[in-house]
Amino acid sequence: MDSKAVGQSKWGRSRFGGGSGALIAVSLSAGAVLSAGAGVLLARLNAPEHFVLAALLMAAGLLPVLSTACWALLLDRDTLRGATRNPEISVESQWYDRAAIGVFQDLLLVCGLGGAVFSFIQIQASLGLVLAGVVLLALLDFGIRYFIIKRAES
Amino acid sequence: MENNLSAYRRERGFSQQALADLLGVSRQTVISLEKGRYDPSLPLAFKLSAVFGCKIEDLFIPGED
């Protein structure tokens, strides 16, 4: 029986050592650096006439997302409160797989039918907007499917 | 698949949460196993047999098919 005893906390600890405070500080710092870099780059490409304002706005918008991404990458998940040692053999893992398989099939259907229909209808749309829509659809579909499976089998 | 998990667990005096902690899985996993709504993977079945000190076939009763 594998019994790895680890202290768990609300924000967890870094996989490279240190406490929760250090993990949060490093995540926020890395997120700030990355969002500042991305803000400058995006502002230079998209709004050179209002460079400073655009860079600040984009960096502010990206800061929470990139800081959270850094936290997720640096986190040792075993130190997060409520984390199970063997999530891969838990029932939730099976629910996740089933929901993901359903989403994959839905995306094939929607993208296939959409591609067929829009090859005959001339509608111009931003590629970025369409891809964002597909991602949102996939996330929503996954959430609904997971919720339904969980309700049915709990 | 039918199983005797609930009986074995009660016999050992484990709560569902205690068994889940021993196995390193969620309590919901134990609930689903006991209700027969989740067929365990082979690693989980071996963990269960180790916890209860019995064979896998003592815990799980294969269906007709």
Structure in words:
The complex is a heterodimer of chains A (154) and B (65). Chain A has 154 residues and is mostly helical. Chain A contains 4 helices and 2 strands; from the N terminus they run βααβαα. Chain A has 2 domains: 67 residues, no CATH class; 67 residues, no CATH class. Chain A is flat, with a radius of gyration of 21 Å. Chain A starts with 12 loop residues before the first strand and ends with a helix. Chain B has one domain: Orthogonal Bundle (434 Repressor (Amino-terminal Domain)), CATH 1.10.260.40. The N and C termini of chain B lie close together (10 Å). Chains A and B meet through α3 of A and α2, α3 and α4 of B.
Question: What distinguishing features does this structure have?
Answer:
heterodimer, A: 154 residues, mainly alpha, 2 strands, 69% helix, B: mainly alpha, 434 Repressor (Amino-terminal Domain), two-stranded antiparallel sheet, globular
List the helices and strands and how they pair.
The complex is a heterodimer of chains A (154) and B (65).
Chain A: E1 13-14, H1 20-46, H2 51-74, E2 75-76, H3 91-118, H4 127-153
Antiparallel strand pairs in A: 1-2
Chain B: E1 2-3, H1 5-12, H2 16-23, H3 27-34, H4 42-52, H5 56-59, E2 60-61
Organism (chain B): Glutamicibacter arilaitensis
Domain HTH cro/C1-type (chain B): 5-59
GO molecular function, one term (chain B): DNA binding
